[in-house]
Write a structure and sequence with these properties.
By secondary structure, the protein is mainly beta. It is built from 2 helices and 13 strands. The strands form 5 sheets. It has a 4-stranded antiparallel sheet with strand order 2-11-6-8, with no helix packed on it. A 3-stranded antiparallel sheet has the order 4-9-7. A two-stranded antiparallel sheet has the order 1-5. The protein is globular.
Length: 195
């Protein structure tokens, strides 16, 4: 178990954990605003904190607001550096296409996660060491459970056509952006599966 971290704060309402052991402390709104469909707004919490050196705060969306009302945070996670002493504000976004959302004073609008962060030194080199992923970028690992045409995707050195080597045979092709395209004719093959 990690040692508790003391974070001094000022304002009307302290960041608070809903349950013991929660990672995120709720931040509440200090103002009433209405977010029209597609609108974003910087909403104040009225809280200021002093994070200890070697730590950073990360402001993330509340899952209930996102799932039920489409309310998220534009720059999630918002980063709070240890040296910042201003009011914590949340860049809320209403992603609902048709419904407005009213934020009332005292509503829980985001969560604050405090984590230790190492001091980093960036060192110029002539060449980077090899990495498992290499230069594979967006979409390079496929989507959901769709398979790719590389043996590495199956965790084996070589993939046989009968799946007898411990891996299923490939069932699709890879398109230009690296996404696996299924070749089957069933509904799942047509749409794939997404997490």
């Amino acid at each position: 178990m990690t040692e508790p971290v003391d974070v001094p704060w000022t304002g009307a309402t302290a960041p608070a954990f809903a349950h013991p052991g929660d990672a995120g402390a709720d931040l509440v709104s200090a103002e009433a605003v209405e977010l029209a469909p597609g609108e974003r707004r910087l909403v104040g919490t009225g809280v200021r904190i002093a994070l200890p050196e070697g730590h950073a705060g990360f402001v993330v969306p509340r899952s209930g607001l996102a799932a039920k009302h489409g309310i998220t945070i534009v720059n999630a996670p918002g980063t709070i550096d240890a040296g910042y002493r201003g009011e914590l504000k949340v860049a809320l976004l209403n992603t609902d296409a048709t419904e407005s959302y009213a934020v009332q004073i005292g509503d829980r609008i985001a969560q604050l996660i405090v984590l230790p962060v190492p001091q980093v030194r960036f060192t110029r080199v002539d060449e980077l060491p090899d990495g498992v992923r290499g230069e594979g970028g967006f979409g390079s690992s496929g989507y959901g459970d769709r398979q790719t045409d590389t043996a590495a995707a199956y965790g084996v050195d070589e993939v046989g056509t009968d799946g007898q080597d411990g891996a299923a045979p490939p069932t699709g092709i890879i398109d230009e952006d690296g996404a696996a395209q299924p070749t089957g004719t069933g509904a799942q093959a047509q749409e794939g599966t997404r997490a």
